[in-house]
Write a structure and sequence with these properties.
The chain is an all-alpha fold and about 210 residues long. It has two domains: about 130 residues, Serine Threonine Protein Phosphatase 5, Tetratricopeptide repeat (Alpha Horseshoe), CATH 1.25.40; about 60 residues, no CATH class. It is about 75% helix and about 0% strand. It has nine helices and no strands. Helix 2 runs antiparallel to helix 3 and helix 3 runs antiparallel to helix 4. The relative contact order is 0.09. Its EC number is 5.2.1.8. GO terms for molecular function: peptidyl-prolyl cis-trans isomerase activity. Keywords: Isomerase, Rotamase, TPR repeat.
Length: about 210
């Protein structure tokens, strides 16, 4: 889970031309985006989050006010910016080891663009860190349906399958000790039920601890 994996960076769409009334808002957004990029590059992820959050807020304002509803091309570009800032924030929170927030921002990007491979990949990275291997496998399979030749996604999927299987076996051993008498009287159903519940409980504890760290 500590492996560094290279991933494709999203293409940055051109900024749409904006009405004069919104030019100051556009200038502020561009400055915040640049500030976030510079902060991220020097490893100041908290500052990057602040800057990109401000940029995302201005984009959401444009979308909520439907300022480009009359121009489909410009509207599409603003929606792309919304995806981009959510992706940036997902990556920043991964670097800060705030995986729950990273998943949230990746999900925001996927709501706008369900087949966005960068969002799927970053969500998978965060899910692996919180030991949610089943959902990570789902995301990676979706990724590979779009980009089947991605070696990094293939390798991560193999790791997810390995750790999920390993976790199940470990949970079954623990459950057998705890629910041994129940398993003896009813075949393996008691141990299987106990293992499933135990594995789920361990995941919940792990997720909570990582969020608190």
């Amino acid at each position: 889970m500590g492996d560094e994996v290279e991933e494709p960076e999203p293409e940055e769409p051109e900024e749409p031309e904006e009405p004069e009334a919104n030019s100051k808002l556009a200038d502020a957004r561009e400055k915040e985006e640049l500030r976030g990029k510079e902060a991220f590059q020097r490893g100041d992820y908290e500052e990057a989050v602040k800057a990109w959050t401000a940029s995302l807020r201005s984009v959401k304002y444009l979308l909520e006010k439907n300022l480009y509803a009359h121009n489909a091309e410009h509207q599409k570009e603003v929606e792309k910016m919304d995806v981009r800032f959510n992706l940036n924030l997902a990556m920043a929170h991964i670097r800060m080891r705030e995986f729950g927030k990273a998943i949230e921002f990746a999900d925001n990007a996927l709501k706008r663009d369900p087949k966005n491979t960068v969002a799927l990949y970053r969500k998978s990275l965060a899910l692996m860190e919180v030991l949610n291997f089943p959902e990570a496998m789902v995301c990676l399979q979706q990724f590979l349906e779009i980009s089947p030749d991605s070696k990094s996604a293939q390798e991560m999927l193999q790791r997810a399958r390995y750790h999920e299987k390993k976790g199940e076996l470990r949970a079954k051993k623990i459950a057998k000790r705890i629910f041994g008498s129940q398993a003896s009287s009813s075949g393996t159903s008691g141990a299987s039920f106990g293992a499933s519940g135990l594995l789920q409980r361990l995941r919940q504890i792990c997720c909570r601890r990582r969020k608190e760290d």
